[in-house]
C-alpha cells in the first residue's frame, strides 16, 4: 500500500546519506534522490527535512542519545530515521502522528520498534531544540572564537535577496514586491517566495543574489565603458551587476552548464557580456583589463545558512585544495591587470585560509574598503578588508559569510 508522503521521507534519508557518507552536496545528490518524488510540494518538503536534519544534527543526536540505554552507532539506520522524525516535529511543525505514519515504514522489525519507543519517549518529555544549533566539533575548532556568533546566524534558512538591474528604482521595487531594502539596488523578501512568479522576473528587472554576494562587484564602482574580467563568473550574478554598472564585461568560466544559466540571465535581463568557456589556467586575454573581479571557487562554508551540508562535508583537505587553487588564480589575475586597474578578490567562505591568508600574499597596493561602500551595520576590518558572517545584520535577516579584499596595480 502506498503511504502518502513516504517517498519524500525516503528521499530525504537518501539525501542525508549522500552528504554524510559520500561527501556529496545536497544539490549533487538531489537528482537521484528526488527522482521518485512527485510534485513540487513534496520535493520542497524533501529538501526542507534534509536541510533541517543537517542544520541541527548534533542537537537531534543529543536528544536521541538521551532516550536510549545503549548509544546507537552513528551510521545506524534507526538513528537517521529518528533524526528525520524529530526534525519534522521540532522544526517543521509536522504533527507527531503524521511523522510516525511516514517515518516508521522506513524501518522493519526490531529497529522499527526501537525507533517508535525512542520517539514516543521524547514526545512525552515534550523535548525541544536549543535556540542556536550546535556546530560539529571540527567546525567549532576551525572557527574558534567566531564559532558561537556564527552559529546564531545558522538557526534559520535565509530570506530571499534580489539585486536590481536599475538601482535608482530601489524604492519602487521594494514597494511593488512588498520587501525591504538594505542598500541601493537591493530588495529583501521573506523566504519561500516563488521566484519565477514574482513581478519583474520575466522582464529581467532583478535577479536572485544574496546581499553579501552583491558587495564584491559594487566595490569596482561604475564602469563607464571600461573593460572588466569576471573571473570564475558562473552562475553570473556578478556579471549582471558589472554589466548593469556600465562595464564592458568578459565573463570567464570553465563550466559549460553553469555558463548556460549565465547566458539565460543575460537574455532575461537584456544585459550584455562576452561569455567565454575556458580553463583560467590555460586561457590568455587579448589585452589586459581595467579591473578584475575574482570570486574564486571555495569551500562555500559561508553559505551554510542555505546549504547546511557544508557543515558536515568540509574539512582540512578540502580547504587546502581550495586555497591552492585560489592562490593560482590570484597570480593569473594580477598578470592580466592594467596599471592603475583594480582587483577585487572574494570567497563565500568562513575559512581564514581561503580569505585572510590569501589576501596577505597579494603583492599589489591595497585599496581599502571604505565604510560608506557597505550597508549600514557592516564595517571593514583594520586591514581594509571585509569579513561577513551569517550572524551579522541578524535583526534584519542576516547575510552569507564572505571575505572580500581590493587592490590597485601601480
Structural account:
The chain is α/β, with parallel strands linked by helices and 410 residues long. It folds into two domains: 6-125, NusB-like (N-utilizing Substance Protein B Homolog, Chain A, Orthogonal Bundle); 210-408, Rossmann fold (3-Layer(aba) Sandwich). The protein is 41% helix and 14% strand. It is built from 16 helices and eleven strands. The chain has helices at 6-22, 26-33, 40-55, 57-66, 77-90, 96-103, 109-125, 137-143, 147-152, 170-177, 211-218, 237-244, 256-269, 310-313, 316-335, 356-359, and strands at 160-164, 186-189, 206-208, 227-231, 248-253, 274-277, 289-295, 337-347, 365-366, 386-388, 402-408. Strands 4, 5, 6, 7, 8, 9, 10 and 11 form an eight-stranded mixed sheet that branches. Helix 12 links the parallel strand 4 (227-231) and strand 5 (248-253). Helix 1 (6-22) packs across helix 2, helix 4 (57-66) packs across helix 5 (77-90) and helix 5 packs parallel to helix 7. The longest helix has 20 residues, at 316-335. The protein is globular. The active site is at 348 (nucleophile). InterPro entries: MeTrfase_RsmB-F_NOP2_cat, MeTrfase_RsmB-F_NOP2_dom, NusB-like_sf, NusB_RsmB_TIM44, RCMT, RsmB/NOL1/NOP2-like_CS, SAM-dependent_MTases_sf. One of its GO terms (molecular function) is RNA binding. Belongs to the class I-like SAM-binding methyltransferase superfamily. RsmB/NOP family. This is 16S rRNA (Cytosine967-C5)-methyltransferase.
Amino acid at each position: 500500500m502506498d503511504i502518502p508522503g513516504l517517498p519524500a521521507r525516503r528521499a530525504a534519508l537518501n539525501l542525508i546519506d549522500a552528504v554524510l557518507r559520500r561527501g556529496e552536496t545536497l544539490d549533487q545528490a538531489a537528482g537521484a534522490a528526488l527522482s521518485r518524488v512527485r510534485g513540487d510540494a513534496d520535493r520542497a518538503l524533501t529538501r526542507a527535512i534534509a536541510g533541517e536534519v543537517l542544520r541541527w544534527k548534533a542537537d537531534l543526536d543529543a536528544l536521541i542519545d538521551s532516550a536510549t540505554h545503549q548509544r546507537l552507532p552513528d551510521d545506524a539506520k534507526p538513528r537517521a530515521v529518528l533524526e528525520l522524525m524529530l526534525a519534522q516535529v521540532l522544526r517543521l511543525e509536522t504533527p507527531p502522528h503524521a511523522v510516525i505514519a511516514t517515518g516508521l515504514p522506513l524501518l522493519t522489525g526490531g529497529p522499527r520498534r526501537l525507533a517508535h519507543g525512542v520517539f514516543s519517549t521524547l514526545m512525552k518529555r515534550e523535548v525541544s531544540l536549543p535556540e542556536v544549533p550546535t556546530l560539529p566539533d571540527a567546525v567549532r575548532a576551525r572557527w574558534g572564537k567566531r564559532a558561537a556568533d556564527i552559529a546564531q546566524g545558522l538557526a534559520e534558512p535565509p530570506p530571499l535577496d534580489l539585486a536590481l538591474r536599475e538601482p535608482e528604482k530601489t524604492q519602487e521595487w521594494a514597494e511593488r514586491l512588498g520587501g525591504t531594502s538594505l542598500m541601493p539596488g537591493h530588495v529583501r523578501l521573506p523566504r519561500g517566495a516563488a521566484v519565477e512568479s514574482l513581478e519583474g522576473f520575466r522582464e529581467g528587472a532583478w535577479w536572485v543574489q544574496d546581499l553579501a554576494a552583491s558587495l564584491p562587484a559594487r566595490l569596482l564602482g561604475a564602469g563607464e565603458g571600461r573593460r572588466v574580467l569576471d573571473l570564475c563568473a558562473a552562475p553570473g550574478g556578478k556579471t549582471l551587476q558589472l554589466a548593469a554598472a556600465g562595464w564592458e564585461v568578459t565573463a570567464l568560466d570553465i563550466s559549460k552548464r553553469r555558463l548556460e544559466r549565465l547566458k539565460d540571465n543575460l537574455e532575461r535581463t537584456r544585459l550584455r557580456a562576452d561569455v567565454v568557456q575556458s580553463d583560467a589556467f590555460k586561457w590568455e586575454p587579448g589585452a589586459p583589463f581595467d579591473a578584475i573581479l575574482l570570486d574564486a571557487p571555495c569551500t562555500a562554508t559561508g553559505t551554510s545558512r542555505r546549504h547546511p551540508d557544508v557543515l558536515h562535508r568540509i574539512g582540512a583537505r578540502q580547504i587546502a585544495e581550495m586555497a591552492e587553487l585560489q592562490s593560482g588564480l590570484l597570480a593569473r589575475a594580477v598578470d592580466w591587470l592594467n596599471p592603475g586597474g583594480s582587483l577585487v578578490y572574494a570567497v563565500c567562505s568562513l575559512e581564514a585560509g581561503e580569505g585572510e591568508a590569501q589576501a596577505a600574499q597579494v603583492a599589489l597596493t591595497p585599496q581599502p574598503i571604505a565604510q560608506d561602500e557597505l550597508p549600514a551595520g557592516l564595517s571593514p576590518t583594520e586591514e581594509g578588508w571585509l569579513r561577513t558572517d551569517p550572524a551579522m545584520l541578524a535583526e534584519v535577516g542576516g547575510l552569507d559569510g564572505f571575505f572580500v579584499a581590493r587592490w590597485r596595480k601601480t
